[in-house]
Amino acid sequence: MRALIGLGLVTSLVVTVGCSGESGASASAASSSSGGTAHSGDPDAGEPVVELPALPALQHTTVLPDLNEDAAIVEVALTAEQTSHTYRGSAPTQVWAYNGMVPGPTIQARVGDRVIVHFVNNLPEATTVHWHGLRITPEMDGDVHHVPAVEPGAMFTYDFIVPDAGSFWFHPHYNTPEQIERGLMGTLLVHEATPPIFDAERILFTDDVKLTSGNTIAPFLTSGPDRMHGRGGNVLLLNGRETNDAITVQAGTRERWRLFNGANGRTMELSITGASFKIVGTDGGPLPSGYTASRITLAIGQRFDLDVTFDGAPGSAAQLTSHILMLDANEDVVEVPVIIQEFVYDTAGARPVIDVTVSGPDLPAVDYSAVAQKTLALNGINDNGTVRFSINEYISPNEEHWQVPMGDMTVEIVNQLPMEHPFHIHGQFFQVLRRGTSVADEPGLKDTVLVGGMQRVVVTIHFNNPGSWMYHCHIPEHSEVGMMGHVHVMADGD
Ligand code: C2O
Ligand code: CU
C-alpha cells in the first residue's frame, strides 16, 4: 500500500472576472412566490379556510409549480433529460438537466409538508434522485441499496414529509461523478412555518464545470488529478453561468442568501466585501443566534444561509468573491480572488434597514469534550496505478455496515490522506465538536463537514431517523471508488 499524495484542489482555471459590468439587471431572475395560500378547507362543510403566511419571492431560480391544491401537499413534476445550456459566451453545451435548467428548478415547501415528486427519467442511462439533507425514509432517499435505479424511460414517485426547515438540494446518486457534472442538481427549500420576509431572498448556487474549448463537457477521466481530488472545472459558475450581470441594490437593503456548492472537486472559499453578513443557517436549518465570519468555507454539498445587510454608501459596490487556488509560474500554490457576483449601490439615498429575524428550534445540547465512541478512518490505496478510497479499510461496495441505537453518538472522522474530504451522512444531522486539537467554532446542524488533509474532526451525530443510511465523501470520484459505508439506525424493536 502506497500513500496517496496531493494538496487541495489546484487547477488551471481560466479566470474571467465574473461580472459583465452591466448594472441594473438582476441575473436571470425568474422569481415566483406562492403568496398567501388558502388552505383547501371546504367552506360549505364548515371547514375553516386558513390563510397561510406568504412565502418569500426567490431570485435566480424557477420554482416548480405546485400541482396540488391542498396547501399541505406540494406535488411537482420533475424530468431528467438531455438539453442544452449556455455556461459561458453564447455557444451552448449539451447537458443533462432537471426540467431543462442548470442548476435545476427549486422545489419549495413549508416545514411539515408532504412533497410528492413525479420523476421521469429521460436520460440515456439509469439514475436516482437523492434528497440531500432531508430526514426522510431510506426508500425515498435515492440510494440503490434500497430501491433500484430508475431506468431510461421509466418513472418513480418520490413521496415524503419534510420534517425540517432549511436549504436542501437534490442530485443523482447513480454514476454520480458524471451525472452531477453534466448538470443534474436542483434546490429544495423548506421554509419556516412563518418565513421571515427579507427585502430579497437569493439562491446562490456555486459550481464549476470542465468544458472543452468548443464548450462541450470535457471527457471524464478516471485517473490523475480528477480521481485524486474530484474533477476540477475550468469554468467557475454561479447559478449555472460563468458571468452574471451586476445587481443594483439600494443602501440599507437586507437580504437572505442561500449558498450551495454543487461542484465535484472544489471547496468554495467565499468572502463578501462592501456589505456585512451573519451566518443564520446551516445544512440542518436556521441558526437563530447566528454568528459572524470573515470567510465562508463552503464544502461540496454543504449549505449556509446568510443575513446580508448592504450597509455601504450609495454609489459604492459590493462583491461576492470566490478565492481559487492556482499554481503560479514557480508552481507555488497561490490564491486568486474571482468576483462571482457584483452588487452596485444605486445613488438614491439609503433606506432604513428592516427589522427581520430568522428563528428556529434550539440546537440539541452537546458536550464539546465528549470522547469519540466510533472512528471512521478515511484512507486510500494505490493498487498498481488504480487509486481506490476506503473507510476503516473497507472499500465500497465491500463496505462497512454497522448498527447504532437511536440517540447521540460521538464519532471521530480521521483523514489519513493529505487531500481534503467533505464527509456527508444521509438522513441525520450532526454537530461539529472539535477540529484538530481545537474546539470547533462551527455552530449549527450539519450533514456535511470538510475534513482537511491529515485532519481529525469529532462530531456528535443525532441518530434519530431509523433505517440504513449511507455516509460517504461528497467528492463523487472518491465515493464511487470506495469511500462509502452504511450505518443502520435501529428503531425500537429492530
Ligand atoms: Cu449529496 Cu449521498 O449525497
Ligand atoms: Cu474524498
Structural class: mainly beta
Number of helices: 3
pLDDT averaged over residues? 91
CATH evolutionary superfamily of the largest domain: Cupredoxins -  blue copper proteins
- Compute the number of structural domains: 2
**Cα shape:** globular
What's the count of strands? 31
* CATH architecture field of the largest domain: Sandwich
Which small molecules are bound? CU-O-CU linkage, copper (II) ion
Strand content: 35-45%
Largest sheet: 7 strands, mixed
CATH top level assignment of the largest domain: Mainly Beta
What does the model show?
This protein is mainly β and 494 residues long. The chain folds into two domains: 1-357, Immunoglobulin-like (Sandwich), CATH 2.60.40.420; 374-490, Cupredoxins -  blue copper proteins (Immunoglobulin-like, Sandwich), CATH 2.60.40. Helices cover 3% and strands 42% of the residues. It is built from three helices and 31 strands. It has helices at 176-181, 225-229, 476-479, and strands at residues 58-59, 73-85, 93-98, 106-110, 114-122, 130-132, 155-161, 166-171, 186-191, 200-209, 235-238, 247-249, 254-261, 268-273, 276-282, 285-291, 296-298, 303-309, 317-327, 333-345, 374-383, 386-391, 401-405, 407-415, 421-425, 429-435, 438-439, 448-451, 456-463, 467-473, 484-490. The strands form six sheets. Strands 1, 10, 11, 13, 15, 16 and 18 form a seven-stranded mixed beta sheet that branches. Strands 22-21-24-29-26-27 form a six-stranded mixed beta sheet, with no helix packed on it. Strand 21 (374-383) and strand 22 (386-391) form a beta hairpin. The chain is globular and about 65 Å long. Mean pLDDT is 91; it is low at 1-12 and 14-40. The structure holds CU-O-CU linkage and copper (II) ion.
